[in-house]
């Protein structure tokens, strides 16, 4: 399968696109087969601020923290809903990802293996999918780190590669925003975050920005210091930093191991894990 890269020199190379500093700059806003489709509910995410505040055990309008959390949850939901509703390809992709996650859920105890198995299923379905690795050095404001997620690139519609579209797929997205002693208000934000994210980079950028701010407010309200790995710049680097797109051949050992493990579970009669419930058909996104 050919590998189409966006902003990359080639498969297996580091893809800068923009420097990490400019990505963080933009993130912070400084200076200004039969594929399943996802049925988008027009009323999805219509969170009422008053009822939400009441659920949190506070009087409507009496808590600035609860109000900000509700607005953050609403913002995240609107961003994801709008992106999904306007993109038929994204709806098809989301349906196939939901099926791949369900089929490979028995591998969830090993996230690297689980991630590669899902990427493999997408490739088998004809998608140009790959595991992307981000890695960044420490700076004055950002601790060094690394992260992995899946991406899917659509074929260019014309001769210009720039016409390709790239989608970020993270099968463990929501857990990246878990913080110590979360407030009841912040829980509403966590509930709005998708467990499995499927979205274009621009949407991911906006969702991460909103969620990172909410996480900071939760920690501060509990009298806790924001750890380096939960600061906005660090969170931005995970999905928006320079990335290395793993070529198909490098994934073969992981794919073979995943297939062998799944076959073993089926032979001995192990339950492969809970199915993805229908209610997650959009929540997965």
TrEMBL record:
Pfam families the UniProt entry points to: PDDEXK_6
Protein name, UniProt field: Uncharacterized protein
Gene source species: Eleusine coracana subsp. coracana
Lineage: Eukaryota, Viridiplantae, Streptophyta, Embryophyta, Tracheophyta
């Amino acid at each position: 399968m050919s590998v189409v890269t966006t902003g990359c020199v080639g498969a297996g190379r580091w893809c800068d696109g923009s420097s990490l500093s400019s990505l963080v700059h933009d993130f912070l806003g400084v200076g200004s087969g039969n594929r399943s489709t996802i049925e988008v509910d027009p009323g999805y995410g219509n969170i009422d601020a008053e009822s939400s505040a009441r659920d949190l055990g506070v009087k409507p309008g009496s808590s600035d923290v609860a109000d900000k959390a509700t607005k953050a949850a609403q913002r995240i939901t609107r961003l994801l809903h709008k992106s999904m509703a306007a993109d038929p390809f994204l709806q098809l992709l989301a349906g196939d990802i939901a099926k791949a996650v369900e089929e490979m859920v028995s591998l969830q105890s090993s996230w690297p293996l689980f991630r590669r198995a899902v990427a493999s299923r997408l490739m088998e379905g004809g998608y140009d999918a790959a595991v992307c690795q981000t890695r960044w050095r420490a700076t004055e404001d950002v601790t060094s780190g690394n992260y992995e997620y899946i991406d899917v690139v659509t074929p260019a519609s014309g001769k210009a590669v720039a016409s390709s579209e790239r989608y970020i797929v993270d099968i463990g997205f929501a857990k990246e925003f878990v913080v110590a002693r979360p407030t009841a208000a912040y829980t509403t934000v966590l509930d709005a975050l998708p467990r499995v994210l499927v979205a274009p980079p621009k949407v991911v950028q906006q969702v991460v920005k909103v969620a990172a701010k909410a996480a900071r407010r939760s920690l501060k309200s509990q009298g806790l210091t924001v750890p380096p790995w939960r600061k906005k710049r660090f969170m931005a680097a995970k999905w928006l930093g320079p990335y290395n797109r793993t070529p198909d051949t490098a994934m073969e050992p992981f794919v073979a191991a995943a297939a062998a493990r799944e076959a073993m579970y089926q032979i001995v009669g192990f339950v492969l894990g809970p199915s993805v419930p229908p209610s997650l058909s959009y929540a997965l996104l």
